[in-house]
Amino acid sequence: MHEDCKPAYDCEKLYRIFEEVYDQLLGIGRMRRLEEAIQKDLIHELFLSFYEKKIDLELVTNPTSYIVTAYKRKIIDFYRESARFSVDDSWMNHSLTLMPSPESTLIEKERILELSGLLRKSYDQLPDRCKKAIYLKYYKGLTAAAIQQETGWSAQSTYNYLSIGLKQLKASLELHPQLAKGGVSLLVLFLLLQQF
Asked: Which residue, among 3, 2, 16, has the nearest Cα to 50 in the 3D structure?
């Protein structure tokens, strides 16, 4: 059968069914703790797909059940898609997703390398005991008690070595605020030390 010989799709039927089940679908979305704007988008996408596929819901045995099932699947797909973008990918959750340019990516890498070099140089200038305390705490992940056990230092000495070392590292970063801009935390910088 040719496209032009098919009867026209009756949008009035689709709109009538849409009005009948709209509140029920919103209730289902609320139960699944979806924001109302997202619910409305999903419902409209669902009915748009019915229209594009020219599905005649009056031919379906139980159209309400069919629509509810299709909507629940749409919600599941939405959550699956949302789960793909983790908290680490927070930049992807903005309404306008921009990919960083190669130039800005290169600049950021150079800034991180320069910052890690500065941090490494500052780390190397620390007293040996401070270096050891920081290494055990942030690189090996030991607790203060485990550091005491491994080194034989007192609790106060362990605390002092960590405190002095961190203060000196922080002071060296304050000398170069252009590198450490944007609130770069020391813990992230210690992760960079793992490369060395």
From this structure: 16
